[in-house]
């Protein structure tokens, strides 16, 4: 892949990771990119680095444009390993460059590298760096999504270097949103934005709203949003901003999903009349089996739907392990404005449905109670109860959705 000029003198010099499928436990079936950017102004500036495995690629890209020893400034917007771990290799080529980083970023970088070799300037919101025709303005965005995170704004070019914000895990030969939509599909791109948001940024909704409001307050209206993953937003930057505001405000579809696992198909059998009851009440319903569906897809679908029912058999008096794992993921992501309920089969003592509700309560989710349990295998009468359970859930879901 060659470098990509997103605007005169502003180049993408990153790397495409076509192969990654496990991104620290988050499944990335479409791979990802590690984006960094080189600005060829009077004072040559590199914005971010890439994951260490791809150092050679970004160095090759930089060398195709300039002798790396001429790099005068290196901005590190975020120190997570997928962005900062080739700093060592970069600084070996431009040892006199100054690194611009947030105070918490510097403290974090100290834990990974011998930083005493390098020159730093600690920056905070409002600090600027003039590099010739262009100015870089730093904006701290703590906890979006790490404490060190910041963005860099270039007013002359209208480019916002947004680090993880507005990214997508998409490996593609297309570098921009318009190119991706033309060559692949805007539907795939929209889906990748939601997937990324749900799996990474879901806990930070209010911070995202505050950050976007702060950009407006600072008069920042980007012509181009250049994230550190996925395509660059140059055709429709406002679209991704609007999409983030909607997601951060708790937007969801009036739809139900059923997330379940099963031992001997009894809990699975319950999903059929429950889904029918939901659909017969005029609500779309999708059914997702845990061991057949990647966790990132479950989380994305959970996030898109206003209501979810979890189906879990009882195993050793508690939830089925895959259901517990799913709820552990979701607890960490702190979803809001969603209604949930539980059902399942058991053999003797039961316990999984009760434990599910205890978990939902800890998560602060709206409860659809009581859950429904059947012993061993659903009878015809049990199936009728399951159908009614689905109908009642749909009724409650519609009432709850109307509040938003
Ligand atoms: Fe893409 Fe927070 O790293």
Number of helices: 13
Would you tell me the overall average pLDDT? 96
The CATH topology of the largest domain corresponds to Metallo-beta-lactamase, Chain A
CATH architecture of the largest domain: 4-Layer Sandwich
Could you state the CATH homologous superfamily of the largest domain? Ribonuclease Z/Hydroxyacylglutathione hydrolase-like
Main-sheet strand order equals 1-2-7-8-9-10-11
Number of strands: 24
Major sheet attributes: 7 strands, mixed
**Class of the largest domain, according to the CATH hierarchy?**
Alpha Beta
Radius of gyration: 24 Å
Share in β-strands: 15-25%
Cofactors, ions and other ligands in the entry = MU-OXO-diiron
Judging from the principal axes of the Cα atoms, what is the shape?
Answer: elongated
Q: What are the low-pLDDT stretches, counting only 5+ consecutive residues below 50?
A: none
Derived from helix and strand composition plus strand pairing, the structural class reads alpha/beta
